[in-house]
Every structure is written in structure tokens, then in C-alpha cells.
TrEMBL record:
Keywords: Cell membrane, Membrane, Transmembrane, Transmembrane helix
Record protein name field: Probable membrane transporter protein
Membrane-spanning parts: 7-35, 47-68, 80-100, 106-125, 137-157, 177-198, 210-233, 245-262
UniProt main location, coarse: membrane
Name of a matching Pfam family: TauE
Length: 265
């Protein structure tokens, strides 16, 4: 057990550092690393992806709190947007966890790889959609939140990769969109975690120390360390050439995604 904790502490350290440095959701880093660790442990391939997604979601429940607090202190969280979209993301993420729990690992891995390619391309090009319209009404916000929630559950992220472009497209300033996405990430993480816990009960292949599909040793290691290393990443972001590093990281995401795809197929 001690070796496992050390392994997951390393996952948390790297995830927190990269999240702080690049401003990306930790799930993009956590999920591939958890899959590597689970393979080393000999965890059943049939539930490996569900465990990784669920544990990633659970970790975001903790890490998003400090992020929201920091953005809110700077007045960068638009709580009216959070309230307007919260219902959709709660329903979408909770429902998405049911879809992910029912899908085979191969399908989930392929979907995750496609999403990695999308994020890597976005980072490599460094483009945000042009602001062209106002935020939609209640129905539109509910629908957008539902889509963001479902995709977030399927790839184990806090939704910022989708919610930030959505808000920028609707004339929300970038810094405010980033802060608000942190507020949206918490209900996404809570709903996804609850859904994965519920769907994981009774699954025979689960390893010990699991709460539903949430693997507690991994969660403990990630949470304890990522909240400490994320501020280091933020400090490095102010002293290193982040645009160049983002392009290098985008290439790394392509490599990780391609390796996952090859191993899957």
C-alpha cells in the first residue's frame, strides 16, 4: 500500500504543477497517468477507464475549491452565469456518469483520445472563438450546461476546456470566463463523483479501498499533493515562456493520445 501511495503522490504532484503552469484541467493529466498506474497494478481492463474518470472527478471536488476561492477574491467569477448553467451541468454530468459506466473501456478510451487531440490542437493554435453573441436564455444555458456536463463526465474533467470557449463566444471577457469556469467545475465534479460512486457499487472487478468507481488510495495521493504543487506551477507561469511550453505540452498530448489509441486498438 505504501508504494501505491507514493506512486499516486507523484501523479498528484505532476498534475498540480501542470494545471497551475498551463491553466488546464487536472483531468487531462490525471486520467492517462492513472491508466498507467492501474495497468501496473493489474486492475481489470473492463473497469480501468471508469476508475480513472471517477477518481479524476473526485479529485476535482477538492482542488476546484481553492481555485474558485482565488478567482472569486479577484472578482473574476460571474455567479449569475454559474447559477444559470448549474442545473444543466448537474444533470448532464450525473447522466454522463451513467453513460460512461455502461460503455466498454475501449469506447471510453477512444473518446478520451479524440478529446485529447481537440485540446492539443486548441493549445497548439492558441485560438479562442471570436465573441459574436450574447449569452442565451434559461433554455439555452440549460442545454449548453447539459452538453458540457456529459462530455466532462466522459473524459473526467472539470469542464473548463468547454465552458471557457462557450463563454468567450458569448462575449464574456477571457479572464472572467476562466474564473467563472472554476465555479462551474465544482458542481460538475460533485455530480460526476456521485454518479460514478452510485454506478460502481456492486461491480465485482473493483479493487479494494474503492468507493463505487472512486479509487481512494489514488484520490488521497492526488489531493494531498496537487493542492501544494499547483501554486508552484502558477509561479513558474510568471517566469517561464508559457506560450512555447504550451506548444510543447500540446505535442506531448498528441503523443499520449496516440499511444493510448495504439494500445487500445
Amino acid at each position: 500500500m505504501f508504494e501505491l501511495i507514493v506512486m499516486y503522490v507523484m501523479v498528484g504532484a505532476l498534475a498540480g504543477l501542470l494545471a497551475g503552469l498551463f491553466g488546464i484541467g487536472g483531468g487531462l493529466v490525471i486520467v492517462p497517468m492513472l491508466l498507467f498506474c492501474f495497468t501496473k497494478q493489474g486492475i481489470s481492463n473492463d473497469i480501468m477507464m471508469q476508475l480513472a474518470l471517477a477518481t479524476s472527478m473526485a479529485s476535482i471536488c477538492f482542488t476546484s475549491v481553492s481555485s474558485v476561492r482565488a478567482h472569486n477574491q479577484r472578482g473574476a467569477v460571474d455567479w449569475s452565469i454559474v447559477k444559470g448553467i448549474a442545473g444543466g451541468v448537474l444533470l448532464g454530468t450525473f447522466g454522463g456518469s451513467f453513460i460512461a459506466s455502461a460503455l466498454p473501456t475501449t469506447a471510453l478510451k477512444i473518446f478520451f483520445v479524440i478529446f485529447l487531440y481537440y485540446v492539443a490542437t486548441q493549445m497548439l493554435l492558441g485560438k479562442q472563438p471570436k465573441a459574436s453573441r450574447e449569452l442565451p436564455g434559461m433554455g439555452g444555458m440549460l442545454g449548453a450546461g447539459g452538453v458540457i456536463g456529459v462530455v466532462s463526465a466522459l473524459v473526467g474533467i472539470g469542464g473548463g476546456t468547454l465552458s471557457v470557449p462557450f463563454m468567450v463566444w458569448h462575449n464574456v471577457p477571457l479572464h472572467r470566463a476562466i474564473g467563472t469556469s472554476a465555479g462551474i467545475g465544482f458542481p460538475i465534479a460533485v455530480a460526476g463523483t456521485l454518479g460514478y460512486i452510485f454506478n460502481g457499487f456492486g461491480v465485482a472487478e473493483r479493487p479494494g479501498y474503492s468507493l463505487g468507481f472512486v479509487y481512494l488510495p489514488a484520490l488521497l495521493g492526488i489531493v494531498l499533493v496537487s493542492v501544494l504543487t499547483a501554486p508552484w506551477g502558477v509561479k513558474l507561469a510568471h517566469s517561464l515562456p508559457v506560450p512555447k511550453l504550451k506548444k510543447a505540452f500540446a505535442i506531448l498530448l498528441y503523443v499520449v493520445g496516440t499511444r493510448m489509441l495504439i494500445n487500445t486498438l
